[in-house]
Amino acid sequence: MRITRNGAAAGQTTTNQSGRYRIGDLAPGDYDVTVSMQGFKTAAWRGVAVSGGMETVLNATLEVGKASDTLAVLASPAPVAAPRAGGGGGRGAGVALPNSQLNVTIDGVTTQALNSNAGFFTAFTPRLDAVEEGTLSSRVQNAQAALQSDATAAQLGDLFEYKLKEAVTIHKNQSALVPIAAGEVEAERVSLWTSGGRTTRPLRAVWLKNTTGLTLDAGTFSVIDGQAFAGEGLMESLKPGERRLLSYAMDSGLIVDAKSAGSPTRITQVKVNRGVLIQQAEDRQTMTYNVRNEDTEPRTLVIEHPVRAGWTLGGTVTPVETTATWYRFRVVVAPKTTATMAVEEVHPIEAQYGISTLTDDTVTMLVRAQVMPDGLEASLREVLTRKAEIARLTAEMTARQTELDTIARDQQRVRQNMQALKGSREERDLLQRYVRQLGEQENRLEVVRVELEKLTATRTRAMTDLATFIEAVKG
Prior knowledge:
By secondary structure, the chain is α+β, with helices and mostly antiparallel strands. About 25% of the residues lie in helices and about 40% in strands. It folds into four domains: about 1-50, no CATH class; about 70-170, no CATH class; about 255-370, no CATH class; about 375-470, Helix Hairpins. Strands 8, 9, 14, 15, 18, 21, 23 and 24 form an eight-stranded mixed sheet that branches. A four-stranded antiparallel sheet has the order 2-1-3-4, with no helix packed on it. Strands 19-20-25-22 form a four-stranded antiparallel sheet, with no helix packed on it. The longest helix is centred in the C-terminal third of the chain and has 48 residues, at about 425-470.
């Protein structure tokens, strides 16, 4: 803003961010005022009266200097800050354009439209006082009709970018949703039920494969079925050729009831290796899914069953897809009927026993399982017989050692009594009896020691033979 009086400069200032200004220390009189800004028409006033001791208020409104702006819109994986224009005559605004238009083909017929975040774009939208002919919408319609992309995509390491092929013209007081990718993708209409959820109602979903050749960014999507809004949801980034289940609404036509049942541990195999008996067994668990279709049309239900560490699938049911965390099974349910699918899982268990430590109960359990190789039961029974003989020898050795210890304690007592005698006639008789007793005990000690030595040698041979026999057991 510039003020002159009689052709001479009297003052100059600029507005703040709110458009306010103030010029002080002016002498009373008439002044010429000029307000200018780049890109806008200049406003001028002549003969503005300023009185002493009073404040003169002058508001200025600038007109835009041209009718329209044509701007190039570049894509980026994240929002970009829009430029802003200051001043009282016009403002700039950032417009986020996050959606791309995709046609979803179900059962060979294009029946749904899917809006997916494919990148964020920011355009500068000035407020203009005139309209330039030519619209963005015509370009959008042409692109959608031709099912061609309005942008080219490029991979940037783990990221990606889109670049529009043409500049975009936006009219005054308007914003635009720029279509980034338009093309048909493969999709199948299904219902989705995830095991472990708290509801018996599955979700409506599309099993979508990205056949556009472009990476689709994460974001929201909407599903149009039969020209009607069917639901919306969220999706993660989808690479070209990647397949994904996308749920978008509750399915009120299906009810799923899941019941789990386990079975006792079953021994599957018994084998022997170098004196070690290896028992292989397995736990089995069955999850039964009962699906009721209350609709008048057949439904395809995808059941997500969790993948558990250490468990493998058994039975005859095969998943149509397996991920790191889910088995996905397909169940087709006719109208007004109930379908049942049982998923059987097996958890293998391995236990090892030293043959020398086997008991009668363990061998009996293994025999009842009817999985032992031929001849192994007889070998194990022979091991038990030899162990019993060794146990008998050990018990006899313990008895002989106990007898030796008892005689030794008794002899010590007798000798102490003999030392206490004084030599009288009665004591001499008692002393003779003690001597006879000691003699008899010494004779018994000699016999017991010989028997203990024989028992020890016999047991040692039996244990050696048992170890050799166990080492030779095969199965």
